Amino acid sequence: MNRIVAVFLMVSFTNAQFFDEEPSFNSLEKASLNDSLPINMPLIKSIFWSNEGLLRKLDLAPKSRLKELELRRDMMQLHQKTALVNLGLMSYQYYLGHEMNKDYEKRSDLHKNLGYASFGIYMTSAGLSIFSPPALKYDKGVSSMNIHRFLSIIHFSGMIMQPFLGYQISNSDCHSDYYYDLHKDVGNVVFVSYLLSFLVTLI
């Protein structure tokens, strides 16, 4: 049964909608930036990809909007794959974290090493999404992609906190229990919001 569920999740994730729309590349061969840059581009995208964005000023952007969208497609597909790998790692790490009281000495090193791996893959996946070129358009109001972005802010913030909290657990004598409980609570928020952000892409 578990294998069936795992296969279903993998297939669903592969087919998940990570793009605000499927671009018609043929219609963009002669499109200019002003024609195709979305007005409601997310702030993080505008820093890098607006007309005056950093990547354009440094002349690091592709030479055409068509090439940008092709690059975006490739980066977002890789974002999906790395996120899927990390979901598996985070699930097992989450399980270990909740079983830590049973055998702390035996499980703590594995939990820590999985944390390093998960953090690295997570930041790689996040970077692919953050630095990818903007879509043709972005949904307004409530949509699965906007919910996905909102949840990403939550789990990204928590993920940034976790290495610090883990360090404090290992190096704080008088407050280790406090940091342990906080690390566990933040881990709950990160895992649930990360899982939900995956599930909403299936809608």
Structure description:
The protein is elongated. The model is unreliable at 1-9 and 11-22 (pLDDT under 50). 70% of the residues lie in helices and 0% in strands. The chain has one domain (32-202). With 203 residues, it is an all-alpha fold. The relative contact order is 0.13.
Keywords, please?
203 residues; 8 helices; 0% strand; single chain; mainly alpha; elongated
Approximately how much beta-strand content do the residues carry? under 5%
Order of helices and strands: HHHHHHHH
Radius of gyration: 20 Å
Mean pLDDT: 84
Q: Determine the number of helices (DSSP H or I, runs of at least 4 residues).
A: 8
Oligomer: single chain
Low-confidence residue ranges:
1-9, 11-22
Query: Which of globular, elongated, flat, extended, rod-shaped describes the shape?
Result: elongated
Number of strand segments: 0
Can you summarize the main beta sheet? none
**How many domains?**
1
Calculate the terminal CA-CA distance, rounded to whole Å. 23 Å
Determine the fraction of residues in helical runs and give it as a percent range. 55-70%
Judged by helices, strands and strand pairing, the structural class is: mainly alpha
